[in-house]
TrEMBL record, chain A:
Keyword Transmembrane helix: yes
Source species: Mesohalobacter halotolerans
Organismal lineage: Bacteria, Pseudomonadati, Bacteroidota, Flavobacteriia, Flavobacteriales
The protein, known as: Uncharacterized protein
Residues spanning the membrane: 12-36, 42-61, 81-98, 110-127
Alphabetically ordered keywords of this record: Membrane, Transmembrane, Transmembrane helix
TrEMBL record, chain B:
Alphabetically ordered keywords of this record: DNA-binding
MF-aspect GO terms: DNA binding
Source organism of the structure: Mesohalobacter halotolerans
Pfam families: HTH_3 (PF01381)
SMART domains in the cross-refs: HTH_XRE (SM00530)
Positions of the HTH cro/C1-type domain: 5-59
The protein's name in its UniProt record: Helix-turn-helix transcriptional regulator
Entry keyword DNA-binding: yes
Length: 133, 64
């Protein structure tokens, strides 16, 4: 295994760890006030701050992950991100309009947009990889 | 853009993995360049040029 591959693997693991840590702290900050500490305000603020700090660490890990990619890998991810960002803005605003004009019966929650971003990124990555590799 | 990477690699008896390691990219990147699916950056082109001791113009053929 080459030095680059080893470094990439290590960085992928770090990114995965920070991502799971962010998801876990998000779950704690979401459900903790109701099910664990009975709406204690200080604990809720601490849980949100911990989640925010984990999110920042996840972003830093993601930046490092990008910086150790080679130029083709970076191109594949950048193209996927560009499409995902564009679609997230356009589809997100259209979805919000549907909610505001009461054309849909449910609320346009942020969770839908996050899910849409994740799925779009995965699909565009898959398509871009098959184009170049 | 066409290139002579595959020929030169064969002449030097190198695998895609050997070449990838020598110029610090992934094997998939070397494969994509050889197939003409991806044009390398100037830095990578110069690394390849130095490695094979060939001019960039010999290694890569630009076509309009």
């Amino acid at each position: 295994m080459t030095f680059i591959m080893t470094t990439q693997k290590q960085q992928t693991i770090k990114l995965a760890v920070w991502t799971w840590s962010w998801v876990a702290t998000l779950a704690i900050a979401t459900f903790g006030p109701r099910f664990i500490w009975d709406d204690h305000q200080l604990l809720t603020v601490l849980a949100i701050l911990t989640n925010l700090a984990n999110g920042v660490m996840m972003i830093i890990a993601n930046r490092k992950y990008f910086n150790i990619m080679d130029e083709l890998q970076r191109k594949i991810h950048l193209e996927s991100l560009a499409i995902t960002l564009g679609l997230a803005v356009v589809v997100g605003l259209s979805f919000s309009l549907l909610d505001q004009t009461n054309l849909i019966t449910f609320d346009a929650e942020i969770g839908f947009l996050v899910g849409f971003i994740g799925i779009t990124y995965l699909i565009t990555l898959f398509i871009n990889r098959s184009r170049y590799l | 853009m066409k290139n002579k990477l595959k020929v030169l690699r064969a002449e030097h008896d190198m695998t895609q993995q050997d070449l990838a390691q020598a110029v610090e990219v992934s094997r998939q990147t070397i494969n994509a360049i050889e197939k003409g699916k991806f044009d390398p950056s100037l830095v990578l082109a110069m690394k390849l040029s130095r490695l094979f001791k060939e001019d960039i113009e010999t290694l890569f053929i630009y076509e309009d």
